[in-house]
């Protein structure tokens, strides 16, 4: 009987230790909240061959849960009479995201949309990285297309809650986005033109960045 009680007590102790070891990890998980009122975004700087001055715009959603970037001159081309520099286009945008005191944010998901016409053998690459001013730039997220392709494309990147990168509370830091479109002729017929674009004249093609919010 005593032996049985001792075993039960030992088991209870082990469970208590296990619970204690798990508790800190659970406590470290952020408690996400809805986006606060008063959030605004403005473009600080724009650089790159894919977004000449005046061809990129940013807008925040009404519910403060996302913002969109729209381009009107962002297209990479290869083949035919195009120039070698046309095969790679890039855009770097630094944005000032003004957040009410007591809140901070991370990017939880990004949706990229565009259109590509790739002849047989052509390879298309779309890359992006984003980071806060003063932080080390993260590695690029890369998506690939292969010809023959003639259609819209959409790529989505989702970040697990445990891996979200939060802006430091109480600090005003620009949010930086670097994107790139690149084409490789591969085994294609070099006389035929292929292109990959993320531009839109009517605003229908956008890149959408979804916020995650928490209280400081």
UniProtKB/TrEMBL annotation:
<dbReference type="Pfam" id="PF14273">
    <property type="entry name" value="DUF4360"/>
</dbReference>
<dbReference type="InterPro" id="IPR025649">
    <property type="entry name" value="DUF4360"/>
</dbReference>
<protein>
    <submittedName>
        <fullName>DUF4360 domain-containing protein</fullName>
    </submittedName>
</protein>
<keyword id="KW-0732">Signal</keyword>
<feature type="signal peptide">
    <location>
        <begin position="1"/>
        <end position="27"/>
    </location>
</feature>
